[in-house]
Amino acid sequence: MSDAIPLHSADLKIPTIADVRAAAGRIAGQAVRTPLISSADLNARLGARVFLKPECLQRTGSFKFRGAYNAISAMNPKARERGVVACSSGNHAQGVAAAAQLFEMQATIVMPADAPQTKIERTRALGARVVAYDRASEDRDLIAQKVLAETGGTFVHPYNDAFVIAGQGTAGLEAADDIAEAGLSLDDVLVCTGGGGLTAGVCLSVHDRFPDARIYSVEPENFDDMARSLKSGTIQFNATTSGSLCDALLTPSPGETGFAINWKRLAGGLVVSDAQALSAVAWAFANLKLVLEPGGAVALAALLSGKIDVQGRTVLVVLSGGNVDAGMFETALRTAESPA
Amino acid sequence: MSDAIPLHSADLKIPTIADVRAAAGRIAGQAVRTPLISSADLNARLGARVFLKPECLQRTGSFKFRGAYNAISAMNPKARERGVVACSSGNHAQGVAAAAQLFEMQATIVMPADAPQTKIERTRALGARVVAYDRASEDRDLIAQKVLAETGGTFVHPYNDAFVIAGQGTAGLEAADDIAEAGLSLDDVLVCTGGGGLTAGVCLSVHDRFPDARIYSVEPENFDDMARSLKSGTIQFNATTSGSLCDALLTPSPGETGFAINWKRLAGGLVVSDAQALSAVAWAFANLKLVLEPGGAVALAALLSGKIDVQGRTVLVVLSGGNVDAGMFETALRTAESPA
């Protein structure tokens, strides 16, 4: 398909910490500077000092606003007039829609028809045009290419873009700054991982301050493309495109731009089951009083289910999003109530 | 009953802003300095600038830890050896239990048997001895007096105590500091109100910095003792002791110590229905990604249901707690889903 518009963003260079710092300047005053949360119970239980970065409290309910706003703010005004296009099951969708709304420009989001209802509704509420497609029978890339051809708009990739990765990295930058300010050093970092954009950004910002920190990607079962890619040293693909409750993390493979960072910097790739993710959602409800979506809870799930030994260590866990339908949330609460 | 041990705390003086500042020093490093949260959607909808103080993120899941820790840290070491006693349906219980645990002392909490299960379990998990009583047939004061006589312990009143009120006031102090630091002034404040301890503390700290701020108590229907007391100028009692979902706010009447502050400083007393409180719980789930209990959501409910006009104003809403059972939370989510 040589005549198709390629679905990557304008900027495929490998971002650096300087790009993360520049992103922090751009998003200041627009993104929420989320606090670090800690739980005395959790620290006592694990014999560790755990800091949770609740990106569910971020504008649009996930970290995605950071990258989307950074990418759009870096576009030239002429390009902005033609709008932006994105493909997303919902969190990047809302991030792009909210950022586009702030710049008073058009956003078109190609979303699977089976995405969580709350994500579709909220993307529309943010003024975006939503084009729904059937995951089984339609090709979202073709749909996006058609929109791009019609509008002359700019594609904002959810993770394979230097500006997006740099924007997501500001979550790690804030956490690293806060931990350093408390006079502490960071030993382990757990990040929820889909295409690896947040993960790569967090690697840049955390390693800038704490070069010895061990950073782990965390993925849901059957979507462990990052874990396998890290082992093999080359980008691996998932055998399936659906079948996990962690809708935010169902990417086909690690993005190349982020992987150039992740494969050198990650200490390993962890994998949790959907049941462990749901259990972490319920634990966060009862103990943190935070609403997490399953995909936003996998890093916490890895911690709670003992995937790494954190005894005596200082740990950062990124809680990446909270855009969950009431029905799924109730499922998580009920699963946790019944004996395992 | 002249031979009974009176159930008030040691210190019934009227606290001042100096006491709140002293409390801030005592709780530093033990209590969570909760952030201010804002919602772009909410601000746009109301045409206001709203700051939410999420005390559900506080240690033990409610603001109560602040006052309990302040009161216990002010006790002399000899008295601490004999332990503390408290009566509470659950939030003060956990606050006192957690504070006592940090001082390695015994806490005995007299709790109604029908308190939310999560509150009873967590109070026990914090090392406290829980004495359950039947609301209908037993007198909790008599039970507490018996424990005090046996142990020689100190009673920590949930709101009729200068140290407790000063401790709760630190929530307002932090919010006022943050709002002043952002270069803003505060116009309206909404506080969830039971016995009025938090409300009185917030009056002291907010008015110290913003003397013209209008501060409102918010209570559930049929437990509007503060609203009626403000109107009449004398302490009024509720006709009933149960029958609202807002278990945290079912006090018989405003405490005298706090009322000495509240009646002079409050701009008025607002009242919301249980349905409005549940709807606010559901709204916070979907929009803030925060878990609130119904009693911790009444101030937000007053805002969302338009009890005061906030157009063009800067508003602080205290979200006072998030200790809610999964069953009640599911009820809130389902109530919100069904058409009104």
Summarize the structure.
The first copy, chain A, has 14 helices and nine strands.
Account of the protein in words:
The structure is a homodimer of 340-residue chains. With 340 residues, chain A is an alpha/beta fold. Chain A folds into two domains: 222 residues, Rossmann fold (3-Layer(aba) Sandwich); 92 residues, Rossmann fold (3-Layer(aba) Sandwich). Chain A contains 14 helices and nine strands. In chain A, the strands form two sheets. A five-stranded parallel beta sheet of chain A has the order 1-9-6-7-8, with helices on both faces. In chain A, strand 2, helix 5 and strand 3 form a beta-alpha-beta unit. In chain A, helix 5 runs parallel beside helix 6. Chain A starts with 16 loop residues before the first helix and ends with a helix. The relative contact order of chain A is 0.16. Chains A and B meet through helix 12 and helix 14 of A and helix 12 and helix 14 of B.
